[in-house]
Recover the amino acids of this structure.
């Protein structure tokens, strides 16, 4: 096992943090878009599949499709519950 220099280690840590931030931004933007478009049922599923497919090679490379869908749907539920007085 080769040893990484301290500089390379920090570079890798920064890159992982950047990827995690970009993924969470994608989730937030997708939730906002789906709520704004008022998508329900099959149209929401088709929209989410399109977003997942568009980002599959980049941000969603290591994320299974079902995990992506559940993260979006739970984010939509959290937003829905937050708006209730």
């Amino acid at each position: 096992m080769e040893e990484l220099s301290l500089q390379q280690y920090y570079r890798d840590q920064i890159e992982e943090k950047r990827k995690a931030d970009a993924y969470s931004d994608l989730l937030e933007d997708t939730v906002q878009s789906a709520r704004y478009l008022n998508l329900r049922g099959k149209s929401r599923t088709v929209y989410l599949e399109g977003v997942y497919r568009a980002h599959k090679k980049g941000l969603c490379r290591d994320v299974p499709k079902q995990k992506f869908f559940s993260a979006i749907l739970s984010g939509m539920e959290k937003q829905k519950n937050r708006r209730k007085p």
